[in-house]
Design goal:
Blueprint lengths: L5 E11 L11 E5 L2 E6 L3 E3 L4 E4 L3 E6 L4 E9 L4 E4 L5 E7 L9 E4 L4 E3 L2 E4 L8 E15 L12 E7 L8 E7 L4 E7 L9 E8 L2 E8 L7 E6 L4 E6 L1 H4 L6 E7 L2 E2 L5 E2 L1
Parallel strand pairs: 1-13, 20-23
Antiparallel strand pairs: 1-4, 2-3, 3-6, 5-12, 6-11, 7-10, 7-13, 8-9, 8-13, 9-12, 14-15, 14-21, 15-16, 17-18, 18-19, 19-20, 21-22
């Protein structure tokens, strides 16, 4: 008597959001400005048994631009089940990094090279009829901003600091629009009190991964208030000038907006 075997396999397909659709049996190359990466994912997985079935994992090499991260997400054609090809039977499974880990379908790489272990935990299929059971998992990779403030270093982005001046909240601000090709900001000022003064000084500058924004009067010899925003950590430091320090409650930050959206609560002051 001929006994049919149960055959289980998982096809691992890949998709990139940059217009490429490679076979992931070989590395896939994508480029985005200063970012260039190669993402490698196994093309197939033959299920050897119920329980844990490891693969060779995910690996990513290359270079990520400042303030960027590489995200990889996985989706299942059969809602995380191996489906019988000539019938309606299914065997559920979960994707994990380790045999005793939690189900996982998304990964982030903030530095390259990076890697992650990968496998599937398959439910008991001892009572299932013989046949071929398959599923297809599609991996989608894309480059995203890793922090809120990194969005201020995108061409045309506008960052704006609204502040108190001499105890008044009259809409005083310093604003910069970023030019990615030159790495500089076009700076404007405004407001009902500080901004109307001809002797006001102000700046928005890029210094490494930081954005430096300052406001003050020529009388003070330097900016009376300076904020240094760290685009890699969403943090900032505040430095007061000598005159401002004498009445600290009269001066200081009201809000920070990025492209018109208030991001103040997403930032941490050092």
């Amino acid at each position: 008597m001929k006994i049919k075997k149960r055959i289980f396999s998982l096809a691992l397909a890949g998709a990139l959001t940059l217009g490429l659709l490679p076979a992931f049996s070989s590395p896939a190359l994508a480029a985005d400005g200063e970012t260039s990466y190669t993402l490698t994912i196994p093309s197939t997985l033959t299920v050897a048994n119920s329980g844990w079935n490891p693969t060779s994992g995910i690996s990513a090499t290359g270079t990520l631009a400042s303030g960027k991260k590489l995200t990889v997400t996985a989706s299942s054609a059969n809602s995380w089940a191996l489906k019988q090809q000539d019938g309606n039977e299914t065997v559920s499974y979960t994707m994990k990094e380790t045999s005793d880990g939690e189900a996982k379908t998304a990964w982030e790489f903030t530095t390259l090279p990076g890697s992650a272990t990968l496998g599937i935990d398959v439910a008991d299929y001892s009572t299932k009829p013989a046949g071929t059971y398959q599923d297809t998992v599609t991996f989608t990779a894309k480059v995203e901003n890793s922090t809120v403030l990194s969005g201020a270093l995108v061409d045309g982005a506008t960052i704006k600091v609204n502040f108190k001046w001499r105890g008044s909240n009259r809409g005083d601000y310093v604003q910069g629009v970023y030019n990615a090709s030159s790495g500089t900001f076009t700076v404007t000022k405004g407001g009902g009190y500080w901004g109307s003064e001809e002797r006001a000084v102000y700046k928005v500058e890029k210094s490494g991964d930081n954005i430096i924004i300052g406001a003050g009067y020529y009388d003070y010899g330097a900016e009376a208030m300076v904020w240094s925003f760290d685009t890699t950590n969403d943090t900032y430091t505040y430095t007061q000038g000598s005159t401002v320090s004498s009445l600290p409650s009269y001066y200081g930050l009201i809000s920070v907006t990025l492209n018109g959206t208030d991001i103040t609560n997403q930032l941490t002051q050092n």
